Structure to design on (408 residues):
């Protein structure tokens, strides 16, 4: 498996949302988050949780390059069970982009198009 | 600016002042209280107060005789003189700054060259257009004999700034030096403020959203103007004692969530030809 598109989740989505999946310009994103301490492992008061958005449309060599992974949220402190609260603005945007789509301009073909975005899956480091 | 050496040369001890020192100090006091606009007290420039305390004219005279002027106070910024040293260094470069620099024409050319090829192509939608406009306007060369564009030049200096965490003043000074090395008529911005103004279309927007310190809610949408969390009642802002036993809210939020919307960033991917091809 060299790319998430080889995975079963990707193919399953193609089956249930046939229409949107057919348009290759629609973007699938993955979310990733984990806590980290900018001032060393023991500086607990400074813990923050960055949330990253990764567009999965990119080809295998490019997809996990640093400049292609977008930092989207910086949650101060440990969000604990309130993760959902802090994710709100991001989720709102993603839901809107899924339902209504966003006007985009494609430089390669020089056309405008309506892009839909959906959340594919997320990468986490859950407690064992 | 007239020479201010007398401030320190004219007074050698508590009892020894030159005639010049007395005259000029008097003139200084006149001017200082003139510019204090009727106030009885103003900042005392003596060595002891060092412009941190306000004194009346009489007290100030005593202080100046007793302690002398505070060190290196030749620019009377506390007494009505603008702090213009930096302006002076910077100014020669502003002359070479043309108002419009033919950006208007350039935009038209750019539009024709890039969006006018064939009838099949569409005008880019609004945000994309603003971005391209900004790019094209910054494409003008830094000065007559180079291919380096204005945007490119700022980008490089800005990159240095963040790499070595230059202070703002350091950055301004560096720009000033680079500017003196460039031929006349260049368009390098003269300070940090102007560079940021040019780069602001490049930057991705981000929002700061205040959050409840216990993580119950975010202060957005319905709660945009709330001051306390509707769930747990904790304060949105830092609180201090107001003196009468109550608490007063400052305007500093307790918890700040930073949100960088991903959609415009994906849009940006499509706006660049190379990544746009890769995305499909």
């Amino acid at each position: 498996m060299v790319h998430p598109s080889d995975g079963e989740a990707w193919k399953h989505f193609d089956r249930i949302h046939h229409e949107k999946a057919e348009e290759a310009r629609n973007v699938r994103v993955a979310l990733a988050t984990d806590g980290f301490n900018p001032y060393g492992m023991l500086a607990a008061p400074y813990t923050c949780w960055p949330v990253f958005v990764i567009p999965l449309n990119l080809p295998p060599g490019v997809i996990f390059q640093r400049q292609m992974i977008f930092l989207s949220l910086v949650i101060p402190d440990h969000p604990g069970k309130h993760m959902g609260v802090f994710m709100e603005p991001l989720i709102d945007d993603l839901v809107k982009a899924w339902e209504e789509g966003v006007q985009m301009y494609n430089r390669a073909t020089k056309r405008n198009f309506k892009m839909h975005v959906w959340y594919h899956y997320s990468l986490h480091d859950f407690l064992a | 600016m007239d020479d201010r050496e007398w401030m320190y040369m004219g007074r050698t001890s508590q009892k020894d002042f030159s005639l010049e020192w007395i005259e000029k100090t008097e003139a200084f006091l006149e001017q200082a209280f003139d510019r204090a606009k009727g106030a009885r007290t103003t900042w005392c420039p003596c060595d002891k107060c060092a412009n941190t305390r306000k004194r009346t004219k009489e007290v100030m005279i005593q202080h100046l005789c007793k302690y002398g002027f505070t060190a290196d106070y030749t620019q009377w910024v506390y007494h009505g003189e603008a702090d213009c040293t930096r302006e002076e260094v910077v100014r020669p470069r502003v002359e070479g700054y043309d108002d419009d620099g033919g950006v208007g024409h350039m935009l038209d050319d750019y539009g024709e060259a890039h969006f006018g090829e064939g009838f099949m192509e569409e005008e880019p939608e609004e945000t994309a257009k603003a971005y391209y406009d900004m790019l094209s306007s910054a494409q003008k060369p830094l000065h007559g004999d180079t291919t380096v564009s204005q945007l490119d030049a700022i980008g490089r200096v800005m990159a240095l700034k963040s790499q070595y965490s230059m202070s703002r003043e350091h950055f301004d000074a560096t720009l000033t030096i680079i500017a003196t090395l460039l031929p006349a008529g260049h368009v390098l911005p003269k300070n940090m403020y102007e560079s940021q103004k040019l780069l602001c279309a490049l930057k991705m927007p981000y929002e700061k959203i205040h959050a409840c310190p216990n993580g119950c809610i975010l202060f957005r949408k319905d709660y945009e103007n709330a001051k306390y969390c509707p769930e747990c009642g904790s304060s949105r802002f830092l609180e201090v004692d107001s003196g009468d036993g109550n608490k007063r809210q400052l305007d500093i939020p307790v918890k700040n969530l930073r949100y960088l919307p991903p959609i415009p960033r994906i849009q940006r991917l499509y706006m660049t030809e190379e990544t746009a091809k890769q995305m499909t």
Q: What stands out?
A: Chain B has three domains: 6-79, 92-199, 207-259. Residues 207-259 of chain B form one domain.
